[in-house]
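Batch job 17 of 40 flagged for manual review because the log was empty.
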Amino acid sequence: MNDKIVLLDEMGNRIEFQVLATFGLDDFEYAALLPVDDMESLTYLLRIEYDDEGEPILVGIDDDDELKDVIKVYEEIQKEKLQ
């Protein structure tokens, strides 16, 4: 997957991310993102939601249990890629 997206941080700075993966879990969709300028950075895992026009919106995951499940699924996807 070679998709890249640009998001704004809290200060309004534009940050380009590499989309590492998108995947579904429990009726939700998620995206794994890595900052292009800092490939050593942590991977961002965000939930994909949709606005009233059907456009995707990336939101943080506040629920600890949901985040643990998403991390587990993402790690399994990464293991499968290595095999």
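Reviewer: the log was empty due to a logging misconfiguration, but the result itself is present. The chain has one helix and five strands. Unflagging and moving on to job 18.
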